[in-house]
């Protein structure tokens, strides 16, 4: 195909695609402060994953899903804060529109930690409304699985790799300066360590995001981007996208063959 991005295809091309497949990836991100990185970097990361997964599975990608709940970064002047409920309602509409057009297999993916407050709600409520299972793929958990096997899946390096894979590396500022980061307040650090979920905001901009440890040359920048791209490929290989999307189809078949015939009349 000319491109995997839905919005760059013609209507005739999408129609032809839907005659052979029904798979679409929805990379969900944020616009928020992230150190010396562009505000949209946490959308660019899942966008690159979505493109590679679509290439591996003959899927399409729906881009531009960027304005969602950011979490504790609302103190940043560049952060756009959308409530989880508002974001979930919007995504539910998007998924419904895609389903009506024939996209039965939908994969929502993100690496943004607080996104689960939005996406978990969407996947469950959409399923109960439509009886069509869609997938929420938490890339952060996939990174953890790779590192548990001895591989490297560095979140910030992979952001650089994502910009590189998408041909957008020049969007990352070239004059980045090292910054002394403020330690997390004890009250927040304890919560992070305990892995509990609480509402909070950061008190310093350096509490979130990435800054270089030293001034980077052009060669340093390219090397970091290529390393991040290699790590993305490692995660993709570990996930096995073809099996993942086939599992989604198998689940749908199981529901139609085993569950709805027995209990369909009294289930949502």
Q: Which secondary structure elements does this structure contain, and how are they paired or packed?
A:
Elements: H1 11-18, E1 23-27, H2 41-57, E2 60-61, H3 84-101, E3 105-110, H4 116-130, E4 135-138, H5 139-148, H6 155-165, H7 186-194, H8 218-239, H9 241-263
Parallel strand pairs: 1-2, 1-3, 3-4
Helix pairs in contact: 2-6, 3-4, 5-8, 6-8
Helix/strand-derived category reads: alpha/beta
Overall shape: globular
Order of helices and strands: HEHEHEHEHHHHH
What is the CATH architecture descriptor?
3-Layer(aba) Sandwich
Helix content: 40-55%
Could you tell me the strand content as a percent range?
5-15%
CATH topology tier name: Rossmann fold
Short description:
By secondary structure, this protein is of the alpha/beta class.
Would you mind describing this structure in some detail?
The protein contains nine helices and four strands. The chain has 268 residues and is of the alpha/beta class. The protein has one domain (6-240, 258-266): Rossmann fold. Strands 2-1-3-4 form a four-stranded parallel β-sheet, sandwiched between helices. β3, α4 and β4 form a beta-alpha-beta unit. α5 (139-148) packs across α8. It is globular. The two termini are 38 Å apart. The relative contact order is 0.15.
């Amino acid at each position: 195909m000319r491109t995997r991005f839905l919005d760059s295809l013609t209507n005739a091309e999408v129609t032809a695609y839907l005659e052979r497949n029904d798979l679409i990836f929805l990379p969900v991100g944020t616009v928020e402060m992230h150190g010396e990185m562009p505000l949209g970097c946490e959308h660019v990361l899942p966008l690159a994953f979505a493109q590679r997964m679509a290439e591996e599975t003959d899927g399409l990608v729906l881009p531009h899903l960027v304005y969602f709940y950011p979490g504790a970064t609302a103190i940043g002047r560049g952060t756009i804060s959308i409530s989880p409920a508002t974001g979930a309602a919007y995504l539910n509409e998007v998924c419904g529109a895609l389903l009506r057009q024939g996209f039965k297999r939908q994969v929502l993916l993100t690496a943004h930690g607080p996104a689960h407050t939005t996406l978990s709600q969407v996947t469950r409520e959409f399923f109960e409304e439509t009886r069509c299972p869609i997938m929420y793929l938490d890339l952060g958990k996939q990174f953890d699985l790779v590192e548990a096997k001895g591989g490297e899946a560095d979140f910030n390096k992979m952001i650089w790799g994502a910009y590189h894979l998408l041909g957008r590396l020049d969007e990352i500022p070239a004059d980045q300066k090292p910054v002394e980061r403020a330690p997390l307040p004890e009250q927040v650090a304890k919560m992070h360590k305990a892995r509990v979920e609480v509402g909070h905001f950061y008190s310093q901009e350096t509490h979130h995001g990435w800054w270089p440890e030293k001034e980077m040359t052009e060669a340093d920048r390219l090397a970091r981007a290529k390393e991040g791209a290699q790590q993305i490929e490692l995660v993709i290989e570990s996930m096995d996208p073809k099996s993942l999307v086939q599992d989604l189809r198998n689940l749908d078949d199981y529901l139609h063959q085993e569950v709805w015939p027995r209990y369909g009349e009294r289930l949502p």
